[in-house]
Amino acid sequence: MKGLTHLGPGFICLDASRPWLCYWILHSLDLLRGLESRSHSIFRADLARKVTITMNSCQNSGGGFGGGPYQISHCAPTYAAVLALLILGTEEAYKTIDRPALYKWFLARKHLSGGFCMHDDGEVDVRGTYTVISIASMLNMLTPQLAAGVVEYLLSCQTYEGGFGGETDQEAHGGYVFCAFAALIILSETDGVDLFSLQGWIARRQMSVEGGFQGRTNKLVDGCYSFWQGATAILVEMALHGETETRKVVGWRKENDGRIVLCAPQSYTEDLRDSGVSGKDFGDTTDLRSVCPRETAMKSDMPNIEPSCHVGGNLECLSQHALQRYILHCAQALDGGLRDKPDKPRDFYHTCYNLSGLSCAQWGQMDSLKESKNARGLNPCGHPLVYGDIGNLLEITNPIYNIRQDKVDRALRFFYREGPESHEVLLL
């Protein structure tokens, strides 16, 4: 929490990463439910206001966000800034985003290859492509004009190993694999992917001794890949088991005529209706929680969870037990925060992605577990698979956008409340 209000002089090297710092810290706190204490409601409101002002100061009139005030717009800090604002979940935060200007800026980043430049005259790779497609899909800006050629570009980046490189004919790498495949999931275009080859590539990246993931072949384990590889494992499983599960994670689907239709899981919709919260009420995020995982997990009807009792799970290419063990025993610093590996210093980046990977490993493919009569794994009742004490259980992170699932639902309901926007309307 202190990192949001004050950072020492050693952080000057991250001056161009201010939106990232806000996102890493906010998402980490959100997974730990650190933003929801009602006893700190005044502090939370003040924090949300300050973060919103800071993010707005990084936004340029020509569209997009820079890494800091008066810095050029760049896809990476734009992605981080928008996610930080969506985590806050207030109407003020939502309305801070200049959607028409951002849409025009995204269009200007489009490259003849089908991908997107990271910034004006910048490199073209799957990072820029994912950040544009993911943010556009969340903010109701994913038009056919923006998506044209993207699928072909991303498919060209799958390598002989099964993973995806940052560009065509480049080595497969965990971060690029996530970006490419998550973007294809959003576009509902995974038919052209060699899914079994991709599944095998991910399985080989989880090390048998450590339990954590390496980023690419012949590299050391790094805690941040707990998310980049772990989330991709979930998405591959969902793609292999049909588009229905995939659409539930995204939160919306595209009809044959191009219309975007919200399709949040029924339980989320029922919880919203029962809570009495309308689609226009975005004041207090605690009232619009789609699920309450920790409370649900601690109900008396849940089977006892013994430390280290589960060695399987419902994911074929990921040992959920081993990944959680690495994160908790090797990546966790005793004085707080998480890190790359033992003997490395803790930092906000690794804290965020270790916690995100831990959430993925705990919750796995939960929708499929609840619906399938033949669900694999040792928790067929749809309960999370937790290594160690139940107190280790985190909130559910969405494996495509990497913010909490209820924050995804909230944002979709706000930005799609009047139906999908057209290319022509966004250009006005």
TrEMBL record:
It comes from the Eukaryota. InterPro entries: FTB (IPR026872), PGGT1B-like (IPR045089), Prenyltrans (IPR001330), Terpenoid_cyclase/PrenylTrfase (IPR008930). The keyword Repeat applies. Binds 1 zinc ion per subunit. The keyword Metal-binding applies. It is an enzyme of class 2 (transferase). Pfam families: Prenyltrans. Belongs to the protein prenyltransferase subunit beta family. This is Protein farnesyltransferase subunit beta. It comes from Nannochloropsis gaditana.
